[in-house]
Amino acid sequence: MVARNVGLAVAFLLIAAARAGAQDPSPPSMPNPQAMQMQVQRIAQERPREAEAAARAFLHVISQQRGQGSVETKLTVLESLKAHDLDAYWREVAQLTVQFDVVQSLARRDSMRAGLVTQMFGLELMARTLQLAYRDANESQREAYRSQIEKVISAHFDFENQLRILEIKDIERRLAEVRAETARRVEKRTEFVKWTVDDIIRDATRPQ
C-alpha cells in the first residue's frame, strides 16, 4: 500500500523525536512501530464505534493544517469507503485513530513536532486516497495521479527532514550539556573525591 513504508519510517522517527523533545526526564508514552501496527489491526478487527469518532476528529485536525484541503472532502472519501468496502473503511478508521493517539501524546510534550507529524499523517492520507483513485483510473489518467502521488511523497519527505533537524538540534543541545558537566567534574575532581570519601566515612561510622 502507498505510504506504508513511509508510515513505518515516521513511527521510528516519532519515537526518537519524542525522546529528544521531552523537556522533563520521564520518557514520553510513545508506542513502537510494532505496537502501532498491532493497534491498527485490533481496531480494524473489533470495529469499536468510538474509533469512528476519533478518526473523524483527526480528519478535522488534519484539515486545519496548511495545504491539507477541506475536511468535507476527506469525510466524503471516508464515507465512500464505508459504502463500498467496509473492510477498507475500518482499516482507514483504525489507521487514523492510532495516528490521532500518537499526535495527542506528542502534543503534550512538543506542539511544534505534533504539527509536523500531523502534516505528515495528512500527506499519508492523501497518498492513500490517490492510490485508490489510481487503481480505478484508466491508463491516460494514471500518469497524472502518479505525478500527484510524487508531489505528496516529496512534501512528506520535506516534513520528515524538518523533524530530523529538530532531533539533531536536541541531540546537540544534550551533548553540549553532557560535555559541560563532564568538564565541571574534571575541574572539581579533588572536591568530588573528597565529598564522596566523606560520605563513605560518615556512613561507616554511623551508629547502627
What is the count of distinct domains? 1
User: Could you tell me the mean pLDDT?
Assistant: 86
Q: How many alpha or pi helices?
A: 8
Low-confidence stretches: 17-30
Which overall shape is indicated by the principal axes computed on the Cα atoms? Answer: elongated
Percentage of residues in helical conformation: over 70%
Rg, rounded, reads 24 Å
Portion in beta strands: under 5%
Helix and strand element order: HHHHHHHH
Gap from first CA to last CA? 68 Å
Question: Quick one: how many beta strands?
Answer: 0
Descriptive account of the structure:
The structure is a single chain. With 208 residues, this protein is mainly alpha-helical. The chain has one domain (4-166). The protein is 84% helix and 0% strand. It contains 8 helices and no strands. The chain has helices at residues 4-21, 33-46, 49-63, 71-84, 86-107, 111-136, 139-187, 189-205. It starts with a helix and ends with a helix.
In short:
The chain has 208 residues and is mostly helical. The chain is 84% helix and 0% strand. Helix 4 (71-84) runs antiparallel to helix 5 (86-107), helix 5 packs antiparallel against helix 6 (111-136) and helix 6 (111-136) runs antiparallel to helix 7 (139-187).
Architecture blueprint of SSEs:
Blueprint (H helix, E strand, L loop, with lengths): L3 H18 L11 H14 L2 H15 L7 H14 L1 H22 L3 H26 L2 H49 L1 H17 L3
Helix pairs in contact: 1-6, 1-7, 2-5, 3-5, 3-6, 4-5, 5-6, 6-7
